[in-house]
Amino acid sequence: MKYEEYLNQRRELENEAQALIDDGKIDEATEKMNAINDLDTKWDAVAKAQANMTALSAEQRIQNVQNLTNADVKNGVAAGGVNFAPVAQMTKDDEMKNLFESEDYKNAWAKAMMGKNLTAAETDVFEKVNAYVHTTENTGSVIPKTVASGIWDMIEEMYPLWDDVQKTYVKGAYTALVGEDSTDAKWYDEATPTDDGKETIGEMALTGCELSRSVTISWKLREMSIEDFIPYIQRKLARKMGAGLGYGASHGKGKPTGSEHKPEPLGIVTALKKETDKPQVGEYVKGSLGYTDLTTARSKVKVGGNELNIYANSTTIWSELANVKDANGRPIFIPDPVNGNVFRILGMVVKEDDSMNDGEVLLSSPFVGYLSNVNKEMSVMVEEHIRTRTADYCGYAIVDGGPTSTKAHALLEYKVGE
């Protein structure tokens, strides 16, 4: 019996048992449930036998050193040769990675999240993956790779600024070099001493900030099928966690000097406003964003100019940017039908991002000018509430980030008091 056959038979028996219970046929339903137990016992035996067979297959057999290939012997000579090429062995990391990305773990995780009983085989897969991935700082049930990838994809679609930033996936704290390019662009001959360029290289410590968001689901709603539950929980967690990640990349407060707030990534807008004299920030009159406002802001960007995008929320896009015209009265908010009907201004793609506040127009090259590190795999913990018959699903990740160059960004916002 193969694993898929076992799952199909078990699912069919479960459906039959439930139907009998719904019809009040308890004795017949009990027989079906006993059949499920028998099937589980049979599968456990099959799985054990398969494991034993795998172990036997891995053992080295005693070889006949006079004829290593057991080839036909003619006139005292064995025909054929011996292949001494090493056989690639799967490491423990490879085995766990494949298990983490498997359908078996995804189904086991979903059943655990839905409060359903796991079979012995599903429990084994679930416990193996979580025992391998968990640390003392990460005690939730790690989200299957395919499910987590779907959540990240939804987050990146809703918050394009977060999508566009450069990301690393280093576990633990590390330090990245940040700053502007060298000012020394001279060439020299052999006899001329080299001048010192004015470097502004610094360091940015990425330690990790905890991102935790909770989704509440009723027990009744949780009775949906696994095929429906997974995309449902993906959408819910993507909206909650995406809002946090988008906010972090744009308006995160950074590390506190005292206890004024919890540690957060340092957002681009926050970093630009913290600079002395705010050289990368400009203002405009509400309802009157002009052509020269945008060109002036564009002139402030000195790093990553060929990769610039414009980020703003829906209100700002359609009440400000869409109404800007050049000196000849022609709109500069132009659709680009060749590239998916995106809108462009001065060659820059306009991206709607709900993490931006009303009136904020961010010209940014995030991949060049921002670095984010995903410190810990996304996990989820479940808390049951018996009295209210609900369950809280708490998504958890550790992420940090900050601008690597403020010259890769420019911000326009409403004048003070408007």
Number of strands: 16
How is the main sheet built?
7 strands, mixed
Strand percentage lies at: 15-25%
SSE class: alpha+beta
Approximate helicity band: 25-40%
Mean pLDDT: 78
> What is the name of the CATH topology of the domain at 141-183 and 199-418?
phage-related protein like fold
Ends apart, CA distance between termini: 71 Å
The Rg value, from CA coordinates, equals 30 Å
Q: Could you state the order of secondary-structure elements as H and E?
A: HHEEHHHEHHEEEEHHEHEHEEEEHEEE
CATH architecture of the domain at 141-183 and 199-418: Alpha-Beta Complex
Shape: elongated
Low-confidence stretches: 58-69, 80-90, 135-139
What is the CATH level 1 assignment of the domain at 141-183 and 199-418? Answer: Alpha Beta
Number of helices: 12
Q: In what order do the strands lie side by side in the largest sheet? A: 8-16-13-9-12-11-10
Q: Which features characterize this protein?
A:
418 residues; 7-stranded mixed β-sheet; phage-related protein like fold
Describe the structure.
- By secondary structure, the chain is an alpha+beta fold.
- It has a domain at 141-183 and 199-418: phage-related protein like fold, CATH 3.90.1690.
- 38% of the residues lie in helices and 21% in strands.
- It contains 12 helices and 16 strands.
- The strands form 4 sheets. Strands 8-16-13-9-12-11-10 form a 7-stranded mixed sheet, sandwiched between helices.
- A hairpin with a 2-residue loop joins strand 11 (342-345) and strand 12 (348-352).
- Helix 1 runs antiparallel to helix 2 (26-58), helix 4 (103-113) packs across helix 5 (120-133) and helix 6 (145-158) crosses helix 8 (226-251).
- The radius of gyration is 30 Å and the shape is elongated.
- It starts with a helix and ends with a strand.
- The model is unreliable at 58-69, 80-90 and 135-139 (pLDDT under 50).
